[in-house]
Amino acid sequence: MSDLPDAVFWDMDGTLLDSEKLWDVAMADLAADLGIEMDHALRQSTLGNSMTDALTKVFVAAGVPDGERDYPGRAAWLRARVSALFKLGIPWMPGAREALDLIGEQGIAMALVTNTERELTDEALETIGRHRFEATVCGDEVPLGKPRPDPYLKAARLLGVDPSRCLAVEDSPTGSQAASAAGCAVIVIPSEAPVPGGPRRTLRESLVGLTLDDLAAASNGTLEHREDLR
Fold first, then answer.
1. Which of these, 85, 110, 166, 190, is most buried using a 10 Å CB contact count?
2. Are 185 and 60 in contact (CB under 8 A)?
3. Helix, strand or coil for residue 174?
4. Distances (CA, A) of 116 to 23, 103, 107, 222
């Protein structure tokens, strides 16, 4: 099928793996340790963020002065908490494993593109299967993480493809913004945070039942997009 993308780039948390629930637990624990409650709006604002961006938002909400923000220490604590939760098992998102199999059987190159740091990504790859991807790009391996386009641009360079000929699969506003900024078409599997509509963005309620025709239509921007994807 000539209209298929040259490569498919996958977000991880909330897209392939139902790991955002585990991050919810860790982020709530972090907020409590800083003396605040992780309310819905604050958690939404951190979805898909790099470690630094997420910590900044929590520090600001907790009123921690700039000079007292222990980024390395809090990042290490959060990393260890999430790692412990990952070791208890990470469930798949509905249809994700089947979608990976479908695309892999067509010989389409795939890359994992995540804001999660390498240490935790490697743990999650034990569930997903690192053999599925020609490249993996993590949040601590680029100058700027999502919502900037750097992670997707690096993935395209590693695979030797034009981003405009690639399709990204995302669940968050942060990730969708990064993929669009890189020039990719995007399939959005919405999470808790609403994702703005835009050209070459396709909404799906889940990955269940994804077909090659769906991939081609999304890649070419022939499916109608909505102004507010939820």
1. 166
2. no
3. helix
4. 11, 23, 26, 31
* 185-188 and 201-203 beta bridge pairing: parallel
Tokens of 44: 């939404």
Judged against a pLDDT cut of 70, whether residue 230 lies above it is answered with: no
Length, in residues, of the chain: 230
C-alpha gyration radius of the chain: 17
**Does residue 94 contact residue 82 with C-beta atoms inside 8 Å?**
no
* Number of C-beta neighbours around residue 194 at 10 A: 13
Render pLDDT for 203-214 as a digit per residue (tens, 0 to 9): 999 999 999 999
Place of tokens 């981003």: 163
Q: Which residue has 């993935």 as its token pair?
A: 155
Residues linked to residue 109 through DSSP beta bridges, in sequence order: 7
CA dist 91 and 21 (Å) reads 10
229 neighbors 199 (Cβ within 8 angstroms): no
Distance CA 161, CA 167 (A): 11
pTM for the complete prediction?
0.83
